[in-house]
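Write out this protein's structure.
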Amino acid sequence: MNAPLLAFNENGIYCAQAGVYLDPWKPVDKAIISHGHADHSRWGHKKYITHHSNVPIIKHRLGEIEVAGKAWNETFIINGVTFSFHPAGHIIGSSQIRVEYKGEVWVFTGDYKTEDDGVAVPYEVVKCTTFITECTFGLPAFKWLPQQQVITEINEWWQKNKEDGRTSVLFGYSLGKAQRLLKHLDPSIGKIYTHGAIENMTEVVRPLISMPPTIRVTRETKKEELKGNMVLAPPSAHGTPWIRKMVPYNTASASGWMAFRGARRRRAIDKGFVMSDHCDWQGLLSSIKATGCEKVICTHGYTDIFSRYLNEQGYDARTAETQYEGEMGELESKVESVDDVVPDEEKANIKVKPNKNNK
């Protein structure tokens, strides 16, 4: 029996024929990187290959590294194996990695979403025989609203806070979510201030996308300046002395996990907006169907539930353990049950806990 084109080992996803890894989680000689989030692009590899728009992002995060940038759909061959990057729609510079050898085609998605958010290059369907998919939100209860509806709600929330004389503090990942929010905030309502971590990353990606102007929050920034305006901050800033400068304020979080019952209350957030940089249940299923694949490997997320469902639909599906987190880093506590997100009428059909990668 022939060895699979891509195999999972203690270092990551390995292509033995080419001697390279895809998004490895331990230091290796050569790494092909899907995108810039820390769980997929780690420090310590000797050589990196990624899409050229991701190069400044990972250099900002990792420092001086040896990295080669490639264009969308540009093929490069390593020991007879053909590789190429294709838009994943997850965040700026995010890619699916296509791997072909002797007529066998695999696609590793990294993280992805199918809705065009106006920031990332939109997701592209890539035909393949084997599809490696995340399933961060691999439960039927996850159904995203159209982005424009969520953005409208966010801007209305900001306007109301301004009328009440309060600062709006909106939490989102420094890379990806923050720029997506910034792109669609309405600057006619007021000024947009940013936490240093978000401002630093936004400066890196500004050459790649048009966004409203921002003002960095510094020690010299006075609370009177912030009143009625918007402040974008990473989730880690919540509950720290830094946020005291915003008083009086209202807080909100933009995350797929805001679909959880009680998530806003547990995190002491005033408002939750359900917005994810990952596919919902239907997005995952439609993406898989469009590839025409026969085999599916489910990595981080609700892998057991999702792979079981795929098998019931006729796919050859299995799970694989990785060290990827998806949006799990936004949760403050481990998800032990699906009860928080599954409506009562659906609980009879789903009684499986998340994969242990959901940490």
